[in-house]
Design a protein that fits this description.
The protein has 400 residues and is of the alpha/beta class. It folds into 2 domains: 207 residues, Rossmann fold (3-Layer(aba) Sandwich), CATH 3.40.50; 178 residues, 3-Layer(aba) Sandwich (Rossmann fold). The strands form 3 sheets. The chain has a 7-stranded parallel sheet, with helices on both faces. Strands 3-4-5-6 form a 4-stranded parallel sheet. Strands 1-2 form a two-stranded parallel ribbon. α1 runs parallel beside α2. The longest helix is centred in the first third of the chain and has 33 residues. The chain is globular. The protein starts with 5 loop residues before the first helix and ends with a helix.
Length: 400
Amino acid sequence: MNTIGGVDTFIHTLVNAWPIKDDQFTVLCNRDYPGLVRLRDRLATPHTLVSHRFNRLSAYSKKTLENTSNGLRRKLLVYFFILARYSNFLFLVIRIKKTLIRGNFDRIVVVNGGYPGGDTCRAASIAWGKIGKSASGIHSFHSFAGASPKYARWAEYLIDCVLRDSGAILVTVSRQCSESLKSRVAFRKLQKIEFIYNGINEPRIVAPEEKDAFRRECGISKNQPLLVMLASYLERKGHEFLFEAFRLVIDQRADCRLIVCGDGEEADFERVKALLQKSGLNHFAKLLKFMEDADLVIATGDLVVVPSQLEESFGLVIVEAMAAGKPVVATAVGGIPEILEDGIGGYICWSSDVVCFASKILAIIGDPKLAYRIGYLGNTHYKSMFTANSMALQYAKLLK
């Protein structure tokens, strides 16, 4: 993983909300994960976090390619590292198996950003199956599965087959996301892939003076309607679509403002910054890097926008908004329609319909009673389906 947010939030939420209080978790996390410190700070006792460097080849290859500018040399290195990666996979399984045996663990939950994701995650599930314990492990992935690249099709197929037959229970975050695994040949005939919706804790109560201070810091007055977007700066998150819709909003409500906040590579941030400048909305919108206190950002806004264009497996920020009683305007991408019901918590538009997106924003900011009603219904929906305790209980039942 290259970004902070969803996966580390899921891990510490699941562990801290675990319903069986005598259980103790040891979380093994790769040392170069950006959310490592955040995860360590948020894990409650008696649970522990141990960082590892099982897959040193991955970090070495990435660093080497970043520092290689010669075209031919870089191309040769890419081919070399592809061969080395799959040769290294067997050693990963052996090394992780030894670690799991030494730790004498009773159960395993492997958490992966997407599928196939990191080699360490698949190797861990396979290693658990090789130990021969009676308890199955869970392999949880949180983004859409991708098809195997042509150059590694057979190697990927073999790894998928071994994982499929290891006894691991495959779990993901939405029905749509579970269906995406069928893009991998080895899983096409798999009868059942579990999905458990993500859950979160109740957001903290943000004092009015905190909201006012944050607005002042961003140059936004107390009475200006404020839209907030919390997402990484990846292209698929739909920043360009949002700016087009926001232009239509500004044409009718020039007092409206927008805050975009998230994590990502510097190149992605600069790309979105250029899009904002091109749109001519610089005076109406502000871009921020990742903020730890998402509760503050959401509570300060009047509504949350989720303009995703591709591969939105769940949409955790929608649940965060509903938990805070804030209305949402989102696109009907991936698992979002499973999470957000139109009129209950917010509105959904097609990912190509800029006019619809803008009109729903205008409807909410123009009618405080409507905004309150939608936010209230969203909060009720959150409490019935998306709490941390509900999610942890479902995982515990599956694991036990």
